[in-house]
Every structure is written in structure tokens, then in C-alpha cells.
């Protein structure tokens, strides 16, 4: 039987042992984080693992921009992803954080043009006066597994997923918000599971 052009059995076995794509990048990033701990210790002994994590993730996600986030949202996000990194080996990167009003207005206008109506656009994006991104309180994250980690553990840091249709979008809140179906959704009159009670402010 001619096996020319097909990988050998050892090569096939090796392929199963070596992570590929995102898994390889995650492994390399975690290794970099470990290697950076001594350097971070020289700079801030009490925060070495925290700093090493942020540096490693900055290398893994070089396009992310944490500037403009409100101080409390920035602290919540960076501490949550440090826990994810060191405790569970999970990487969490930022795809979008603070946006100025002009940028948010452009995004909203583009969505209105794409969908043909303001109400349809509001299912995906809010105008600047309503956007938590403009206030510096929202973070859009990646990858999916990182968002799943944040959904499970983010409440410890005040980070909550707030829309059913956006797995990537989290907001800093001082109390757990009512989950809405989409950005333009309206909060129910009563919290989930409550038969009666005072109305919940949207």
C-alpha cells in the first residue's frame, strides 16, 4: 500500500500531543506569564502575578486598549482576568472597551443604515447617550471560553453579562442587573422569579 503524501504514524501521534492554533497560543501565553513573574516581582513584589498576567495578555492581545475605562471597571476587569489566568489557565482579552460619543454615534448610525430602522439597530447597539461603552463601564471580551468564564465568575468583581444576544458584552455594576434580551430591550416590571413587588428601574 502506498502511503506517499500521508503523514507517518509517529507524525500523526505527535500532532495529537502538540496543541494547535488558539490552544498553542494560550499555552505559550501562560508560559510567558510564568516567565515574567520574576521581573514583575522586582517591580512590585506584592503584585507580581497580577502584573505578569497583564503583560502576558498584552502580548497575546496586542490590539486591546484599556484606556478610558472607568477606574472601577478597569480594576474589576484586570483582577477578574488575572484570577482566570492563574487559577483556571483561561485567557480573557478585550476587543472593545471605552468608546467616545462620536465613535458610538458612528457605530449606531451604521447599524441604522444596515438594518433600515432605529428600533432594529437598537437590538445590536445603543446611541451614545445610552451606551455603557461611552461611560467606560462596558467591556467586550474574547474568546468565547473567556466570556463563559466571566459569566460564571465575573459577579465577584461586579462584571455581569447584561444581554442575552451578546455573549461577549459585560458591564460593571454595583448590583446584579436584570438580563435583557438585547441592548434595546426593556427591563421587566418585576425581577425574575418574583410574583409581585416594586418595579425594577431599567
Describe this structure in words.
This protein is an alpha+beta fold. It is built from seven helices and four strands. The chain has a four-stranded antiparallel sheet. Helix 2 (22-43) packs antiparallel against helix 3 and helix 3 (48-60) packs across helix 4 (71-88). The model is unreliable at 1-19 and 193-202 (pLDDT under 50).
Radius of gyration: 21 Å
Beta content comes to 5-15%
Secondary-structure-based class equals: alpha+beta
Order of helices and strands: HHHHEHHEHEE
Oligomeric organization of the protein chains: single chain
In brief:
This protein is an alpha+beta fold and 202 residues long.
Which properties best describe this structure?
single chain, 202 residues, alpha+beta, 4-stranded antiparallel beta sheet, disordered N terminus, disordered C terminus
Which helices and strands appear, and what pairs or packs with what?
Layout: H1 9-17, H2 22-43, H3 48-60, H4 71-88, E1 93-96, H5 101-115, H6 118-121, E2 138-142, H7 144-153, E3 159-161, E4 169-172
